[in-house]
Amino acid sequence: MLTGDKSKILTSHFGSKPQLFGKYVLGMPGDRVAHVGQDVLINGKIIARTKTKTRLGLPLSIGPSGEIPHGCYYAGSPHKDGFDSRYAAIGFVCGSQILGSGRAIL
Fold first, then answer.
1. How far is CA 97 from the centre of its chain?
2. What does the alpha-carbon distance between residue 42 and residue 36 come to, in Å, rounded to a whole number?
3. Distances (CA, A) of 89 to 4, 27, 43, 59
4. DSSP 8-state assignment for residue 62
5. Mean pLDDT across the chain, nearest whole number?
6. How confident is the model at residue 25 (pLDDT cuts 50, 70, 90)?
7. Could you tell me where the beta strands, DSSP code E, fall in the chain?
8. Interior CA angle at 3 toward 60 and 19, to 5°?
9. Are 35 and 27 in contact (CB under 8 A)?
10. Banded model confidence at residue 6, pLDDT cuts 50, 70, 90
């Protein structure tokens, strides 16, 4: 169950029964995540930029930094406004949160 800012952001943007998220794994256990200004870096390479507010004006908190823990991943999106591990409301995605994996079919 989500509480506080997490549930407000998710409910406001995705409704009371949000669908599953599909993301790319951009960071593996042991990789290092850093935030420099609005840039998000994994092992020194810029992989995304953060925003301070959602499109509805809700404040966004920066996601975790440091070493990605064992059993967890940095989940990302190629979209510049993706809602993913760059924000605290998602954070690192760990094994119990992963329901499956996908592959490109085209």
1. 12
2. 11
3. 10, 17, 22, 11
4. B
5. 85
6. confident
7. 24-27, 32-36, 39-42, 45-49, 66-67, 72-76, 93-94
8. 75
9. no
10. low
pTM over 0.90: no
39 bridge partner residues = 36, 49
CA distances from 97 to 42, 51, 79 (A): 21, 24, 22
HSE, CB side, 13 Å, CA atoms: give it for residue 14: 11
Q: Which residue, chain included where needed, has tokens 């092992």? A: 43
The side-by-side arrangement of strands in the sheet containing 66-67 is 45-49, 39-42, 32-36, 66-67
Which token pair is 70? 């064992």
* Alpha helices per DSSP H over 2-102: 4-14
